[in-house]
Amino acid sequence: FRRVLFPISLQTFVSLYEALQSHKADIIHAHDIDTLMLGGVVADAQSIPFIYDAHEYEQGRIDRAGVLNRWLIRNDERKYTRKAAEVITVSEGIASLLMQHYGIPKPMVVYNAPKTNMPMTFKPSLTIRESLKLDEKAFIVVYVGFVTVTRCLERIVEALSMTQNVHFAFVGPQYQPMVDTLHDMAKAMNK
Q: Is there a contact between 191 and 161 (Cβ–Cβ < 8 Å)?
């Protein structure tokens, strides 16, 4: 049942554990829930500190189906978040939730966006509006992130069926089967 929780198999987990154990590290930096347990176990085995970099609030993800799965996430995240020497996250909101649910000091917040007062060092050849051939008055919902399963992007496309003159664009790396699914859904709804 761990396969449901983690995108890596037990065989991959063991292989990575063995590889990490063969090298003495000074510190482990675990990104997100799928490396949190591995990072925590290796850090414990080597008696070194580790950092948990929480890109998401895992308990709040709606793609984590099933009571057992949510319990495993909550249990693993609680256990290893509390053991982390430092916790980093991407928003004040997630930092507050991690503090509240796990009783940890306030995590460091590192936003996944540039400061708005920084000068733009490049000019895109086309804006999203221009590439979609939309006028300035058109309303656009933009998703920035990995376009893949487990992001509930289907719900955004479904919500478009309840709107008029709203366009949806996604920017970022793309898992082509998911892109195809979203396009097919939009075509079926004439959006």
A: yes
DSSP 175: -
Tens of pLDDT, residues 12-28: 878 888 888 888 888 99
- What is the Cα–Cα distance from 11 to 9, expressed in whole angstroms? 5
**Cα–Cα dist 32/30, whole Å:** 6
Q: State the DSSP H helix or E strand holding residue 22, giving kind and residue range, or none if neither.
A: none
Q: Is 80 exceeded by the pLDDT of residue 154?
A: yes
- Quote the pTM value: 0.62
Place of tokens 């930096």: 29
**Strands laid side by side in the 28-31 sheet:** 28-31, 50-54, 86-89, 108-109
How many CA atoms are closer than 13 Å to the CA of 51, on its beta-carbon side? 12
Structure tokens at 150: 């487990």
